[in-house]
Each structure stands twice: as C-alpha cells, then as structure tokens.
Amino acid sequence: MSDGRLRIHIVTEEDPFYLPEFFREFFANLATDEFVVTGVDVTPPLNQKTPLALAKKLHGLYGSFDFLRLCLRYGVAKVKDVTLPTTAWLGTTARVAARFGVPSSVVPNVNAPEYVGRLRELGIDLLISVAASQIFRKDLLSVPRLDAINIHTGTLPQYRGMLPVFWQMYDGQAEIGITIHTMTTEIDLGEILLQRRVPLAGRSSLDAVIREMKRQGARTMLEILQRYRTGTVDRTPMDRSREGYRSFPDRTTSLAFRRKGYRLL
Hints:
Layout: E1 6-13, H1 19-29, E2 35-43, H2 51-83, H3 93-99, E3 104-106, H4 113-122, E4 126-130, H5 138-141, E5 147-152, E6 160-161, H6 164-170, E7 175-182, E8 191-199, H7 206-230, E9 236-237, E10 245-246, H8 251-259
Parallel strand pairs: 1-2, 1-4, 2-3, 4-5, 6-10
Antiparallel strand pairs: 5-7, 7-8, 8-9
C-alpha cells in the first residue's frame, strides 16, 4: 500500500568519474518524506559490450596521453572500491546508493521482459534515466504511473545525442543547457518539462564542466520532482525545426576541441 510518497526508480550507467557527483548531490538533498527511490540500476558504460570496445571508443576521444590518465583514475577508483568502506569513499553510484539505503543492481538489458516485469511489480510513479546507456522501448516506457523522464546535459532539441557538454563547448556556447523531458523510443525527444542554462564562466576543462553540470543536473532533477509532487509540471513540445544530433566525438573533433583552447581532462 502506498504511504503517500512518490515512488521513483532510476536507471543510469557505470561511470566512476562523473555520475557519482550527480548522485551525491541528489541523495543528500532528496526529501525522503515525499519521495522514495525504489532502486538505482546500472547499465554498461556507453552501451559497449566489451571492455576492449569501450577502450577503443574512449581512446579515440582522449588520445594516448589523456587515455592513460583516465585509466589511472579508473584503476585508483577500483582499488578504493575494493578496499575502502562506504563511510570513507563514495566514488561509485552503487556506493552512494548504499549509503542512502537504496538498492542497486547491474542490468545488462533494460528492455528484457524479466526486468520490465520486475519494475512493474514495484508500482513506480516515475522512471528516471540519468545517462542510461540504452534506448528505452515501449514496454519499459509504459511502466511508470506518471512518466518516464530523462535528464540531458544539453539544450534540446538542438543538442540531441552523445556527450552534449563537449559539443556545446565546441560550438562556443557561453552557457551549457540542462533539459528534463519525457521519453519516447527516439533518443532525446519528447516533451520538455524543465530547462536550465548554466554559464560556462570561463571554464576550459571538459572534465571540470561535466562535474559541475552533474551537480547542477541533480538540483534540476530535484526541482522537477517537486513539481510532480505539487502537480505543477509544465509540458512544452520540442520544436523539431531546431533539431540537431551529434554523435560521440572522434579523434578529429577532439583535436579541433583542443585547438579552440579547451582541455579534455
């Protein structure tokens, strides 16, 4: 039986670098007397099937030197995950969830019938994608009582697609957008529920900007949850005449990004 709190379930992806920033901010400020998180499920990073495929994709973006630095960060994170208690380090999404008493699990395929069935049994009001690496199909989107929503760190529909923070910086935007929208079976489309813009403020490191935007994104998500709670959600159709789509950056665009005066790490 419902206790009056909105029941939300979150799907995200494996990422020890940036997403813990979102979840630390989110859980630390979530009103637990108004909302209950039924779980945080983790999909494969960038939806890559093997570590080698993921490494190739990241190497193409970062180049050899920064890729090596990224691997060192990942190695340190893995050692901490094995050796440190959650009271000492909250560097993974699963650890953040555990600290706040929220169950988490690894989900290889969010559209698998058994997974969709398990979510139905939870009786959730909202299904939230936070950088989930897989497209949600119709059966999954139909599970929540209210909406399935996604947070996208880019102004939509102009910056649909992969790594939108990179592309907004690449295009010389003075602000980085945050969009929360209802989900469809097409990537980054639906009704806009809330948009915010955060000044770049002279930052030149993609790494630093993504970290800040994850924290800002958590605050924006908390804001839309309150609107659901009070029944004050506004819905705006996306103007698809302004639509753009960007793929994951390759080595050529990465080098051009650096020539514009930016750093990746």
